[in-house]
Amino acid sequence: SKLISYLGHASAVPITPPEGQPFQVHTHSVVVRNGGKHPANNVRLGHHYLPASFSVYPSVDYRVIDLPGGGKEILFPSLVPGEQVTVAYLYYPPLLFTGINSYTKSDDGFATIVNLLPTPQWSPWLSRLAWLLIVVGAITVLAGLGQVVVFVWRVL
Question: At a CB cut-off of 8 Å and minimum separation 6, what does 152 contact?
Answer without folding.
Answer: none
